[in-house]
UniProtKB/TrEMBL annotation:
Keywords: Methyltransferase, S-adenosyl-L-methionine, Transferase. Transmembrane segments: none annotated. The keyword Methyltransferase applies. It comes from Streptomyces axinellae. This is Methyltransferase. The keyword RNA-binding does not apply. GO terms for biological process: methylation.
Length: 362
């Protein structure tokens, strides 16, 4: 629900009730979308086709009546259209679930609605009460170690991160001057999607993705597909222990929100040790407004809670990033909004004189 609708609902009892019911039924809607992806409904129908519920049931190996009910729910959510009783077409929003399309959000849906992601949410109240990461107590292991032990889920996570930030990846090269640099090192860059976009938009620039072996598993394939394999390499390592030397730009996207302030200070301090005095740090992250706003269906704040229950990190405000950088020996020089919704920012920081402050406790 849009911010304006939310504001109107606050003064209208009927609309206020509708808002609350909409929110309570949200988990049902999410699971309905997941079922559509698991059954491949959109690819069965085709983005320009029309198929009956009975035909879909035959393809999926499901019963006709429950299948029709699932398809009606998807139509009610705006992902399908029931053109005549029992026949369905795909809407533009539904087309994003086609796993044949390069703009697909299929892996994103599968990852964020995976049972491993959802179980920790059942313990949200405990995380709020104690500040502890629910995932760790539910599974007896932290989220990223869990991914290491489940390669299929790790690959899905990498794909989901790639799908979920394509708009940011596409926008960043035009919003930041990468041509000033010779070598960019992408810290925690996973499958190389972001680095590939930067290199494609900046001829002559070379780059390195620095990540764990699991995180880098699809990087070489990405480089070759995007035509940058001659200018992109990988380096296996742990950003909690070191950052590789050799870059004049250190790029770190959607990493810091996964970790606590203390852990982030350590990550950035390692970059500060490796970066030349004339180098630059570029952080690409969601930035929360100073005071909460009813925007984007609450997604920025739901993401913040997801960080709390699943990984132990947090989303941050401008003030938070400024202080985090100061603690690690950087001075923030600019915040540049990027992407279609303005929630993400490119945060540029320069090495502060004197290196890393002695006290790194936030």
């Amino acid at each position: 629900m849009a911010a304006r609708e939310t504001e109107q609902a606050a003064g209208d009892p009927r609309e206020a009730r509708e808002l609350l019911v909409h929110l309570v039924f949200g988990h049902m809607a999410a699971r309905t979308v997941r079922a559509a992806v698991e059954f491949g409904v959109v690819d069965i129908i085709g983005t320009d086709g029309e198929v009956t519920a009975r035909e879909i049931a035959e393809r999926c190996g499901t019963l006709p009546q429950p299948t029709h009910r699932l398809l009606r729910a998807l139509a009610g959510l705006g992902l399908l259209t029931e053109t005549r009783p029992g026949s369905f077409t795909v809407t533009p929003a539904g087309a994003l679930l086609s796993e044949k399309d390069e703009d697909s959000f299929g892996a994103f849906v599968r990852m964020f609605l995976d049972p491993a992601m959802l179980r920790a949410w059942d313990q949200l109240d405990e995380s709020v009460r104690t500040g502890q990461t629910a995932f760790d107590s539910v599974f007896g292991i932290d989220f990223f170690s869990y991914l290491d032990r489940h390669p299929d889920l790790s690959a899905r996570f990498n794909s989901a991160m790639s799908q979920g930030t394509r708009a940011i990846t596409a926008a960043l090269p035009s919003r930041y001057d990468f041509a000033r640099f010779t070598t960019v090192i992408d810290i925690g860059g996973g499958d190389g999607t972001l680095l590939s976009a930067v290199l494609k938009g900046t001829p002559g620039l070379r780059g390195v993705v620095y990540d764990t072996a699991g995180g880098l598993a699809q990087a070489r394939t990405t480089f070759e597909r995007e035509g940058v394999a001659d200018r992109a390499t990988t380096a296996v390592g742990d950003f909690f222990t070191a950052a590789p030397p050799g870059g004049d730009l250190y790029l770190i996207k959607s990493v810091l929100h996964d970790w606590s302030d203390e852990q982030c200070a350590g990550i950035l301090s390692h970059i500060r040790e490796a970066i030349p005095d004339e180098g630059r740090l570029l952080i690409v992250e969601p930035v929360l407004p100073a005071t909460a706003e009813a925007q984007g269906a609450g997604v920025p704040y739901l993401s913040d809670l997801n960080m709390l229950v699943n990984v132990g990190g947090r989303e941050r405000t401008r003030e938070d990033f400024t202080e985090l950088c100061r603690t690690a020996g950087f001075a923030v020089s600019s915040f540049t909004p990027i992407g279609p919704d303005g929630g993400y920012c490119a945060i540029e920081a320069v090495p502060a004189p004197g290196g890393i402050p002695g006290d790194q406790t936030l």
